[in-house]
Each structure stands twice: as C-alpha cells, then as structure tokens.
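Colleagues,

For the teaching module next term, I've prepared a clean inverse folding example: a structure given as tokens, and then the sequence designed for it. I'd like students to try predicting residues themselves before seeing the answer, so please don't circulate the second half yet.
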C-alpha cells in the first residue's frame, strides 16, 4: 500500500445501545471480545497489517477506557515519528463546542487533519465489527475501476438484510442503487461500512453536506446516495471472509461462539495476520486436577477447578470445583462458585455467580446477559 496516499479514519464513537449493559459504561468498540481482545483491536490490526501508516480514531461516547486502551498506538506499531495514530475527539471551535452529529460530520470536522497529511485516498472504517481484511485488496479494485468510491460488501442472511445499507449493482459491480436499511430489500448484498474514497471528491461532498440543514450528515443516508444521484463512479467489492456486526447481545454471543466452531474462519492463530491488543502481563492459567474442560478458550490468570464446556473465559476468572459453565462468555475477574450452573450466558466483568445459582437453560435458545443490574434475557 502506498503509505503516503492512504489515510484510515476509524469511526469509534458509537454507543451501541442494543448491547444493553455491555455498553453502559464504555463505548461499543471497547467491549471485550474473544477472551483477551476488544472489538476495536480488529480494525486497528487490519490497518497495521495492511501497511497503513496514518490512522485517525474518532471517539465520542464514553471514551475514557477506549482512549486508555489505544494509548499512542504502540501495540499496533503506530507510535511513530512520521505518521502514526491520532485520537480525534469532538472539540471546541470559534462556534463553540459540539458533538459529531453523524458519520459524515465526524469526518468533515477533521478535514484539517486530512489536509495536513495530504491524503489522496481516505479509507473509512467502523470500530465495531469483527473481521480480518487486507485493505490493499479494496484499494487495488478502487484503482482498477478508477472509482470515486468503492464499498466493501458481503451477502448477509435475507432476514437481516433490512438492518444494512443494501447495494444493487450491474454485471461490472458498478453501483446502480443504494438502499439504506430498506423494509423490503431487493437483494442481500450489504454494505460493510468500509469505504475507499478519493479524498478530493469526498471533501467536496462533505463540505456540501455540511451546508444542508436537512441532512443527517451520514454516509449511508446522505453522502453515498447524493454521490450516486450525481453520477459518480461507485463500485462494490465483494468480501468473502468472516465478518460479524456485533450489534446485539445475541450477535455478540454468536461471534464469540464462532471462535469455538469446527468451521471457524476467523483464525486468531494466523502468525501472518495477527490481532494485536494491549497485554495485561498476568500469570499463566491454572487448571486443577478436578477441572473438566472441553472446546474452550481459557485466558491468562484464570483458575479452573470446575467444568467448562464450549465457553470463553477472559482473564483472572475463577471456576470453583463443582461449578459448570456451558456455551458462555465469562469476562474478566468473574467468579462462578461451587455448584453454580451457567448456560448460554454473557457475564460482565467482576460478577460473582453465587453458590448453587442457576443461570440459563442447557440447550435453550435464549441468551442471558448478566451484570450488576441483574439478568436480561435475549
């Protein structure tokens, strides 16, 4: 990738309200995932693995933990003298302080940053998806087509298509219609929220959009439909790897469980495409003689004396003797006490499941979200 010409802008300010208590105190991109990571680790790692040297991370909702996790970007090799990572939060100007009012507005408010770097291409990323992608593949198609914007797409289940921006294309993958979250989608080719723009073209539309008082200042609702209406060269690029929008408690649980599946295509053990995260420097896990473990991920500092089946344990979690955990995601510093049974659950950090307590039903379809506010059933 031509490092001097591509700048990534990572939108990481989402509240993620559909994740309920998972995002009560932290932004959605900061939500823990997969035993040791946070959701934002995936697009950040994709960017550094793709050779992108300049990246702006746009934060907004409850950013403290997210900012601390990212730091100066050293985990992802972004602590550089030239280029690197910058956290871009809403700021005060001569017009007063203001929040980002939409995805497009967030980029518009940081035009000076992009101009300073002298970007030729701007890659827009979302901070709340689980996937591995080489952004060079997207850039290559963008250049081949001489496109103004190229959108990464993938087929989603028909029953979920109305949750996404749906693209209709011709035989050359040129976009002929863009439908943002249609009630009756014409196909299931969904936008992944990953866009490669020519910067000069994007800047023009961001400035024009900022003047429109009736705009919601959103890429999917405003910028992309307007560009299509004006006859710009817009193409779709079909992504065939693993991708999950963890927008609900159930999809979050499913994405974690996917890591344990026989046909898991999100390979966390690929040395050629590592997912990086901030290390905690904890002692090794301890598996007692009384422990029974089957098809599970057990992270650092865990002490397991009970039974764990098809589950993910984050760091420093304790499973006492006689406790049973099935098909669950147990976050850091939790304790499952003697005789307790946990099924199909997502248990937030620091929770203790008391002795003999039963959460969920073995073999059931409901997902149980456990926090200090109680238990929510999804």
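(Answer key — instructors only)
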């Amino acid at each position: 990738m031509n490092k001097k010409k591509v700048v990534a802008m990572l939108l990481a300010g989402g509240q993620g309200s559909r994740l309920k208590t998972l995002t009560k105190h932290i932004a959605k991109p900061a939500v823990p995932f997969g035993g040791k990571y946070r959701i934002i680790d995936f697009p950040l790692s994709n960017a550094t693995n793709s050779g992108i040297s300049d990246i702006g991370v746009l934060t907004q909702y409850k950013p403290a933990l997210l900012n601390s996790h990212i730091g100066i970007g050293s985990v992802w090799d972004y602590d550089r003298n030239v280029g690197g990572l910058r956290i871009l939060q809403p700021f005060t100007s001569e017009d007063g302080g203001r929040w980002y009012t939409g995805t497009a507005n967030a980029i518009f408010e940081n035009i000076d940053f992009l101009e300073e770097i002298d970007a030729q291409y701007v890659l827009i990323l979302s901070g709340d998806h689980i996937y591995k992608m080489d952004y060079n593949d997207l850039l290559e198609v963008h250049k081949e087509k001489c496109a103004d914007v190229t959108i990464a797409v993938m087929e989603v289940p028909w029953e979920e298509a109305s949750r996404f921006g749906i693209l209709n294309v011709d035989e050359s993958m040129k976009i002929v219609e863009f439908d943002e979250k249609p009630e009756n989608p014409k196909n299931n080719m969904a936008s992944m929220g990953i866009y490669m723009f020519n910067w000069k073209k994007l800047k023009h539309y961001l400035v024009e959009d900022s003047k429109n008082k009736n705009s919601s200042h959103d890429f999917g609702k405003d910028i992309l439909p307007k560009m299509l209406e004006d006859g710009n060269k817009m193409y779709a690029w079909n992504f065939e790897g693993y991708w999950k929008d963890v927008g609900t408690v159930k999809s979050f649980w499913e994405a974690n469980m996917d890591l344990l599946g026989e046909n898991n295509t999100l390979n966390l053990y690929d040395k050629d495409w590592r997912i990086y995260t901030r290390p905690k420097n904890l002692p090794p896990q301890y598996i007692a003689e009384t422990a029974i473990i089957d098809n599970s991920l057990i992270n650092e500092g865990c002490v397991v004396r009970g039974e764990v089946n098809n589950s993910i344990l984050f760091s420093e979690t304790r499973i006492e003797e006689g406790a049973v955990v099935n098909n669950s995601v147990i976050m850091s510093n939790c304790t499952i006490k003697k005789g307790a049974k946990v099924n199909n659950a997502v248990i937030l950090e620091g929770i203790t499941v008391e002795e003999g307590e039963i959460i969920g039903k073995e073999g059931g379809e409901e997902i149980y979200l456990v926090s200090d506010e109680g238990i929510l059933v999804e």
